[in-house]
Design goal:
- The complex is a heterodimer of chains A (299) and B (177).
- By secondary structure, chain A is an alpha+beta fold.
- Among the domains of chain A are: 110 residues, no CATH class; 91 residues, Immunoglobulin-like, CATH 2.60.40.
- Chain A is built from six helices and seven strands, in the order ααααααβββββββ.
- In chain A, the strands form two sheets. A five-stranded mixed beta sheet of chain A has the order 2-7-6-4-5, with no helix packed on it. Chain A has a two-stranded antiparallel sheet with strand order 1-3.
- In chain A, helix 2 packs antiparallel against helix 3 and helix 4 crosses helix 5.
- Chain A is elongated and about 100 Å long.
- Chain A starts with a helix and ends with a strand.
- Chain B is an all-alpha fold.
- Chain B folds into two domains: 88 residues, RNA polymerase sigma factor, region 2, helix turn helix motif (Rna Polymerase Sigma Factor, Chain: A), CATH 1.10.1740.10; 77 residues, Arc Repressor Mutant, subunit A (Orthogonal Bundle).
- Chain B contains eight helices and no strands.
- In chain B, helix 2 crosses helix 3 and helix 7 packs across helix 8.
- The two termini of chain B are 33 Å apart.
- Classes of the chains: A alpha+beta (299), B mainly alpha (177).
- Chains A and B meet through helix 1, helix 2, strand 6 and strand 7 of A and helix 2, helix 3, helix 4, helix 5 and helix 6 of B.
């Protein structure tokens, strides 16, 4: 019965019939999604704008109202005490002007207390001055913040600098990085000549890479081991994933051979589709390149 | 086919480049349509699932972040998409336990050569529940525990369904040949 599973797997894992062309539908769906998202975002913006205007209006309405009530109550007291009609006459224009000068309620309500006995000009001037001072204060605070942040950044950098040796040690102790691999270091002197040859090849011909797409580990001498032929590379990393995206093999050595055994479990991999992901750099090109190969493993 | 899906193309797709999306679609649509056909009840359903799957893939592209192979990642999304459609259609109603059908004596029966077309034709005739389990276990390689979670059934049910599905497959295949 397991025979059936194997047959189905081998036959159907790379089942790729001619697909109907539905790109137009996909594009439409994508657009609909995008517009739905932007629509939501747009309505949010509209809402927030509306809310802002409402707040502004209420603030503007509230300020003169509060100021007026404040003055009204104070005036009535003043009138009771001093019975000065001039002061109350002077206060009316302040109430009208104040919202244009300031939207901050605390300032408006605080200021008249101090300047109540002063005349109109002084009041309005003081308001403007205090506002300017407020803005300046804010600005200074902002500046201070920025400076603090910069200082923090500097101190962070200092920390990083002090902590770098630790990281370097980590890298040295990690054998998976090919450049610092001890074996590589021993070979490096010998490799220099080879590498020079390789660069020469690159200048004349082009660097080449050959990735087979089948592996039959049955000891018949044909495709028993998976090898990649690559010439003129300076960085090499191969990862082989199984059909369910699980890593089964990884190598940084271009002379690797894979006989269809999982590195993780040590067990022979079942037949089926595997994916080889090869990351490499050629000597004459600093760009990291990726090549994917579908490997069919048949046992 | 997957050889042509480069890192560059994936990055462009993540950025939301529609040309890159189209390229990826062209490179992988056959493979993905194959999955949809295997799971869905007919070609029309498969077409809908294919479209839905691609929209989902492009929407989720940011989550890929080079986790293994793009094709395998995409396939998982398409399988989930197809399963959701099956669940929505409520075709998966057969959740009975082991029955007499369990041992039909086909163990000695072996299929040496069977083409993709023959497999598909036979699969189309199976009940959707059988087909789903057979697809998930034999072809996709999920374990019974994973299948049970995906379909919302017991692990035992998954096992019995698979045994019955295999028997049913061979029965159907024998009928034709």
């Amino acid at each position: 019965m397991n025979n059936l599973d194997e047959i189905l797997k081998q036959q159907m894992q790379d089942f790729a019939p001619d697909a109907p062309n539905i790109w137009a539908g996909i594009e439409q769906g994508m657009k609909a999604n995008a517009s739905a998202q932007s629509g939501v975002a747009g309505s949010k913006v509209v809402l927030s704008k509306l809310a802002l205007t409402v707040i502004k209006v209420t603030a503007i309405m509230a300020i003169p109202a509060s100021v007026a009530t404040f003055f009204y109550t104070n005036n009535s007291k003043k009138e009771n005490i001093e019975r000065e009609s001039k002061v109350s006459e002077l206060k009316v224009p302040i109430a009208v002007n104040s919202p244009e000068i300031s939207l901050d309620k605390t300032q408006v309500t605080d200021k008249p207390k101090e300047t109540f006995t002063n005349k109109e000009k002084y009041v309005s001037n003081n308001l403007i001055q205090t506002q300017e001072a407020y803005i300046n204060d804010n600005f200074i605070e902002h500046k201070l913040n920025v400076e603090n942040k910069q200082q923090e950044g500097l101190s962070n950098r200092n920390l990083e600098q002090t902590s770098t040796p630790v990281i370097v040690n980590d890298i040295v102790s990690n054998p998976t990085i090919p450049e610092i691999d001890l074996d590589d270091k021993i070979d490096s002197i010998e490799n220099i000549e080879n590498n020079f040859e390789a660069t020469e090849i690159n200048k004349n011909e082009s660097a080449f890479i050959k990735t087979p797409n089948v592996l039959t580990p049955n000891n018949d001498g044909l495709n028993d081991r998976y090898v990649i032929e690559i010439e003129g590379e300076k960085l090499f990393n191969l990862k082989i994933y199984n059909f369910n995206n699980e890593l089964v093999f990884e190598s940084n050595d271009k002379n690797f051979t894979w006989d269809g055994v999982s590195q993780k479990t040590g067990q022979a991999c079942n037949s089926g589709i595997y994916y080889g992901v090869l990351n490499f750099k050629f000597i004459n090109n600093d760009k990291l390149q990726t090549q994917m190969t579908k490997i069919k493993l048949i046992r | 086919m997957s050889q042509n899906v480069t890192q560059d193309l994936i990055e462009k797709c993540i950025q939301g480049n529609s040309n890159a999306h189209k390229k990826l679609y062209e490179l992988t649509s056959k493979q993905m349509y194959g999955i949809c056909l295997r799971y869905c009840k007919d070609a029309e359903d498969a077409k809908d699932t294919l479209q839905e799957g691609y929209i989902r893939v492009f929407g989720k592209m940011k989550q890929f972040e080079g986790k293994g192979v793009i094709e395998a990642w995409m396939r998982r999304i398409f399988v989930n998409c197809a399963l959701e459609n099956i669940r929505v259609n409520k075709f998966y109603t057969e959740t009975s336990d082991i029955s007499e059908e369990f041992d039909l004596g086909f163990d000695s029966f072996t299929i040496d050569r069977i083409s993709q077309k023959e497999i598909m034709e036979t699969m189309q005739k199976l009940a959707l529940g059988y087909r789903t389990v057979l697809n998930l276990y034999a072809i996709e390689g999920f374990s019974h525990a994973e299948i049970a979670e995906m379909l919302g059934i017991n692990e035992g049910t998954s096992k019995s369904q698979l045994a019955r599905a295999r028997a049913a497959f061979i029965k159907e295949y024998k009928k034709v040949n």
